[in-house]
Amino acid sequence: MNQQTICTLDDIIPETGVCALIDGKQIAIFRTKQNDLFALDNYDPFSQANVLSRGLIGGTTITDDTGTAKEVLYVASPIYKQRFNLATGQCLDDESIVLNTYKFKLDGNNVVANYE
Amino acid sequence: MSSTALSTENKGNLVVIGNGMVGHHFIERAIEQGLHQQFDIHVFAEEDRPAYDRVYLSSYFEHKDASKLNLVDLTAYELSKVNLHLNQCIVDIDSASQRITTEAGEIIEYSELVLATGSYPFVPPIPGREHPHCHVYRTIADLDEILAIAELPTVKKGVVVGGGLLGLEAAKALVTLGLDTYVVEFAPQLMGVQLDAAGGEILKRKIEALGVKVLTGKNTKEILSNTAPNSDDPSGDEQHLTMQFTDGTSLTTDMIVFSAGIRPQDGLIKNNPECGIEMGGRGGILINEQCRTNADHVYAVGECAVWDNKVFGLVAPGYNMASICAAQIAGDSKQTFTGADMSTKLKLMGVDVGSIGDAHGTSDGSLSYLYQNPAEGIYKKLVTTPDNKRLLGAVLVGDTEDYNNLLQLYLNDIDLPAHPESLILPNVEKPVMGIDNLPDTATICSCYNVTKGAICSAVENGAYSVSDVKTMTSAGSGCGGCAPMVKDTVSYQLTAMGFEVNNDLCEHFAYSRQDLYSLIRVHGIKTFDELLTEHGSGHGCEICKPTVASILASCWNDYVLKTELTPLQDSNDYYLGNIQKDGTYSVVPRVPGGEITADKLIVLGQVAKQFNLYTKITGGMRVDLFGARMEQLPDIWTQLVQAGFETGHAYGKSLRTVKSCIGNNWCRYGVDDSIGLALRLEDRYKGVRSPHKIKMGVSGCMRECAEAQSKDFGMIATENGWNLFVCGNGGITPRHGELFATDLDTETMVKYIDRIIMFYIKTADKLQRTSKWRESLDGGLDYLKAVIIEDSLGIADELEAQMQLLVDNYVCEWAATINDTEKLKRFRHFVNSEKGDDNVVFVTDREQIRPATDAEKATINLVELA
Ligand code: SRM
Ligand SMILES: Cc1cc2nc3c(=O)[nH]c(=O)nc-3n(C[C@H](O)[C@H](O)[C@H](O)COP(=O)(O)OP(=O)(O)OC[C@H]3O[C@@H](n4cnc5c(N)ncnc54)[C@H](O)[C@@H]3O)c2cc1C
Ligand code: SF4
Ligand code: FES
């Protein structure tokens, strides 16, 4: 497994995202209040623009098939406001759309991408 | 002051000693009862300021603004002829001759006397406690002293003696001040009054995880210092203190705050045994259920009073006593004090804690049910009657979601479900105590003793929102703990009346925008997280974040890209430009009134050319430059700012443009300088964040070339001044502005506009233009005129002052941003590369760029990236 340091944690204001260029791909990386990192495609399929890293982070309570309610975090596109689950890439407003997610981790103060 | 000078005509004196929270509440109730018409009211206060909110005392460390804690409206005191004597301690009472004596030796006669002297912090008699670095935590003066010491460079560590409710609050304050903080508790556990041992232990672990060191079971024998307490330099150099404990261990520190409990302030009686007023066995002033002491015409209320051997250290029972006392003096003997529920729910250093009734399970034969989740630091306990039918008490640590539910079961003696443990187990369908199950007599707000019945009838009488109910009944305006229940009760009653309303902003705030605005103002809230913790739940979302950002800006006008405000902003406010369909931004510099010099026009042209931007004259009389890539924005704006341009706020919910005709400088019909007025207005209101955008128009005569009557504010020149039109709109649903006032001079008109905008900010819903807002105002235009012109609500001065603050704090967001290297960092497309977004592609059309369509991207020659 390969690793690559992309930026430092301080480069990402808490509760916002940045866009990284990794192997020619645009990836939106988000940092939450709790300093968890999430990463999705930066490309918004609805507006067809590379903008998701500039969206607002939000939370909503969702009840799953087993009936348990839990809060999921999402990013809302800055253009037409569709929401995407940060953990899974699932679009909350259109079941048929799922974005790719990517693994990032914090190594000290470094934001590190993990890839095969 | 002599005894005769004070009383006038036949009125006697109603004298109140103490202007603390309860003493002040008494004055309000007394005025309500009309006592100010029967008596001359005199209030003597030991402190040098009128009553303030001790409950929120700790917030002082954050804002350091004593006025935010103030409870007293001095004008209201004055109107009711309440004489407030600050800085005048009463030192003697003679209940036989009905006189009191001030510190200065003046003697005042009273017809009725109310003692509201509160309590004082108990400091255990430990040798060394007089050291200047030892403090207590009760008054603003105490906090000022703590601040002064904590800010000394040598002071790095602080100890709080006492691990009760107030002690932990003091500890949090020391953490806020950046001190390495310790809590030293005599008992084997924290919060021994409210929690059982296991709950105390979980709380201790959670607090320790936050970096506060907790020492329990420590008895301080002596405090030693390396300098004598009264040396020449009492607060200057290093002054380490060493606390010696009876178990032989010790702890060094730089300062100590004692918070080891309170004692009723009864010195006045204790020091004057011949005063004829009886004290309790363990101090305090004895009262009966009418709040009367044994002496005729002498009452006691609040924390100085002892009822049934109890002192009540919370504000709610004190308020209750104050209302009863006022009623008694007014001759209504029906209302009596019958004790108070001391259940509490609070957040201590971010840890939720709740305690109801018999938390320790000491009632005969009671049963306890426990749930413990050590991984998440959750502990819950129920105490029930031996037959399992009724709730006697509860302890909740780490999760207080069940608190209100349990409290209602407890207070109203409601039958418990078959398996009471289901009330505290996670992942179990809980039998929720709906409002409909509660009797009308159930107390919803204990601070103000407001029942379900009272809230429902307020709703029936037209208070359709939580904030109206609050104004009408006071419910929810104390500690705020009952807010969710008040909200539920209001919805319950509205539903019962056949309304279907849900004005919640979103799932994270059970409040409307108006409610949030008031909360933010009243509690001086400066950040989203603070608001969310105190009044919301969950994480926040794309609806509440920008709304709150806008309210914060309307209240305090902080720079929108301040780090803690940044994540709240919509992409437009975040990048200070309007995002376009391809992810590029538009650039709209302000052109006040549409007046622009040739030089500036040239700069616009040059910038557009250099960065290859699409250029258009807008419907708002200015120039919009489109197609700017995010990473180009700082360079573009640096040039514009250098040329004297400011941001046009085309991205903000704020003033857009003041459209103007050319006016009397050139036009043969013009009767006044429309451009001059437009410049002044645009300069005054630029940047003011509001619920939606605001547009204005100024025309130099009735021909109305500026279409002022279709704007939120429209001004048309007349021979005698200006006619002001308000609440017009173009856009989706056009509406003509309504004539608000005629022939105004400019100064008066600006005042009116100040007031209307602030009143709109205060009361409008989110994204509601002035036209829709005006239509939603009960009482319509006449009401608006009454509020603004006649000042029927008495808020005109406040509105003007609030607007002036926003005007004074204006900065051009772009000028601020280009000078801030930190903020500039975010204006690049990739965090790890200087490249631009290769998906942004333009084609040339009608001699300018526009975004390429997908088909074009695939086939046509690409325009060189700018
Ligand atoms: C640029 C401009 C059109 C133009 O090329 O002329 C324009 C462009 C936009 N208008 Fe407008 N409006 C522009 C004048 C107007 C006018 C005319 C005027 O102000 O005299 C109106 C009708 C007057 C009124 O507001 O009462 C107007 C009524 C709207 C509305 C509907 C508002 C309503 O109350 O119904 C929206 C949508 C909204 O705000 O929710 C809107 C929204 C927008 C947005 C912000 C849409 C968006 O979110 O992307 C457009 C983006 C501007 C940009 O990227 O810079 N724009 N818009 C005009 C900019 C004026 C300026 O200099 O700031
Ligand atoms: C940090 C802190 C946090 C708190 N948090 C909460 C909470 O969350 N919930 C809650 O319910 N309660 C809380 N309390 C308790 C609450 O503040 C008190 O219950 C309330 O202030 C009692 O009001 P009072 O008028 O009886 O006393 P006080 O507010 O103390 O007022 C008494 C006043 O009388 C003056 N006085 C005394 N003697 C004389 C004299 N001889 N002559 C003239 N004036 C005199 C004093 O100077 C004082 O100003 C808190 C208290 C503190 C200190
Ligand atoms: S509104 Fe009157 S003053 Fe203004 S340009 Fe038109 S005619 Fe001239
Ligand atoms: S219970 Fe404190 S405000 Fe209602």
From TrEMBL, chain A:
Keywords noted in UniProt: Nitrate assimilation, Oxidoreductase
Could you tell me which InterPro entries the record lists for this protein?
A: NirD, Rieske-like_NirD, Rieske_2Fe-2S_sf
| Pfam families per UniProt | Rieske_2
Q: Does the keyword Oxidoreductase apply?
A: yes
UniProt keyword Zinc-finger present = no
Q: Specify the domain of life of the species encoding this protein.
A: Bacteria
- Residue span, Rieske-like [2Fe-2S] domain: 4-111
Question: Which protein is depicted?
Answer: Nitrite reductase small subunit NirD
Query: What species does this protein belong to?
Result: Psychrobacter proteolyticus
Q: Corresponding gene?
A: nirD
